[in-house]
Amino acid sequence: MVIIGDLSGIQDFLFDVRETGGKQAAALRFRSFRMQLMAECISRRVLWALDCEEKDLIFCAAGKFCINADEHASIPSRVDALEPVLQRWLMEQTHGRLRLALAVHSSSGTIRDQYVMAMRLLQVAKLRPWSTERTRLVSDAPWNATMEAHRDARQGHQLLYHTTVTLHHDTASADEDAIAGVSVQWDAPSPERFPAPAHVLKLSRLSRHIPRENNAPIDFVTLANRSRGTSMLGVLKMDADSLGACVNRRLESARDLMPLKDLSQKLENFFGTDLNRLMDAPGSPWSNLYTVFSGGDDLLLVGPWNITIDFAHRVSHEFTRAFKNEKLTLSGGLALVKPKFPIRLAAHQAEELLEQAKEHPAHGSNAPKDQLAMLGDCWKWAQHDCIITAANRLADWTDAGEIQRGWLQTLLELTLLRRGEGQPRSSEIIPAMATSRLSYHVARNWPKGGPARQWINHLLQQFDRGPNTNDIELIHLPAIIRYAMLATRHSKGDDQ
Predict the structure, then answer these.
(1) 15-68 pLDDT, tens per residue?
(2) Within the chain, which residues score under 50 in pLDDT?
(3) CATH topology of domain 212-374
(4) Helices 434-445 & 405-418 angle (0-180, nearest 10)
(5) Which residues of 105-127 are buried (b: 16+ CB within 10 A; e: fewer)?
(6) Which of 388, 382, 334 is nearest to 362 (CA)?
(7) Would you say 478 and 416 are in contact if contact means Cβ atoms under 8 Å apart?
(8) What is the DSSP secondary structure assignment for residue 430, as one 8-state letter?
(9) What are the residue boundaries of the structural domains of the chain, listed by start?
């Protein structure tokens, strides 16, 4: 019998933190930890209510969990009785922002068919409206943003002082840290001191890397000022492509859900442990990255814009190496924002770019996915090094004084005009004139004989072909120029 649960509204709940006071970084950290702890406690409450053991929990990640139980006639009714209790707790504690959907399925079919049907039932359950017959929709206490922030902070601070947490079934607990009938005890030495069932959870599994000074999260303005050139943040959202197809392959001839448990554990180890290790390593170039969440099959992180771009490529490389045999790829969307821009809106932009990478093939490609969308463009990971190397080279020439930054703006305007994507400065200028104007601009301004002049001369030879060429740099020239312009704007400060 397969039982699947899913917490809806996670992203909205995660980013529903106060944007005033300049403490978005700390607030996000505390909220992210508390939300993960809530998912762990709710999954255990369901697990124990069905008299299952820890080994029966197939996965618990990104607010979703799966339990493999022995078929028993009482299980559906027990799940049905528990659901409104959990819904009521979520209603009181999150004021309806988080909601739980549960699905139970068993049949004489294959394990894959059971899992697929359970997932379908879960989607149906998520579409059901709140029911006043099962859950009272009026909260006993009005929502208080300050009290909620204090509660997030109280639990979030435990990451600094403890290494483990013990979860045990205690529906009568009045402890402030109790979650959905599960009591939370910090740094308990063993579950033997608590009534069964109990589970010791390592906090390292829930904690994620964030840049710190004096054990406090570094604020987003400081992180943005560590960028090259412009003080901006990169907000990166990534997740695995075609994971459902991979799960189907895993369960095709399986007799139980262990192949799914193995895959889920590999994904959790990658997003929850391996990436953390990359950022935590002494002298790591990724130490300035702030992990909002990373687990299941996706991640969202924030950091200095150019470092975030480089890390996205590193993650793609490591993911391909780790999951090549699973035929899994990774796509990403990267939004560039000012450090005081509301993080929930920035995450929404990154989500839209991720959808673009998953649904629309990059220029010259026949299929979407395995791509990164950013800077008004989208490309395959295989092309990433070429594009970013060209962008940094252009920025280096500008910083060295070999070319002027204003010429980059001229090059971008004429490139977009030639492709019919930009607006001319004068109504008398037509797209066909862009090439001749660029040629005149180069002949008059760009110094002869140097590498910069050789590069622009090479582009001019194919400029009329626009993206209809095999030259990667010409295809993605607008993105290359935008990157170089960001990397050469030397303005720092809180007003960025």
Answers:
(1) 887 655 446 777 788 888 888 999 999 999 999 999 999 999 999 998 999 999
(2) 21-22, 493-496
(3) Alpha-Beta Plaits (3.30.70)
(4) 160
(5) bbeeeebbebbbbbbebbeebee
(6) 382
(7) yes
(8) -
(9) 2-205, 212-374, 393-487
